[in-house]
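Write out the 3D structure for:
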Amino acid sequence: VLTSVVGREASLQLNLPTSGSVTLDIFDARGARVRCIHTGGMESGSRILIWDGRDSGGRNVSSGVYLVRMQYAGEAYTGRVVMVR
């Protein structure tokens, strides 16, 4: 999972070698899940998903480091996002 932050949004780039089920979650530094960005099937190839910097309740998250976890093909992959407000 490659990430980049522009303004108040984070672009999350995924490169999937095969189609499959993908779950993409955002966690805070304490390990609490902030939001699920995607869950379900996804075609192979490069995809960009946008996290708007909001939690599951629609509130803006505070500045800090967030972890992105992608579950795909029985494996878990992580990345980091630094949100600056």
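The chain has no helices and seven strands.
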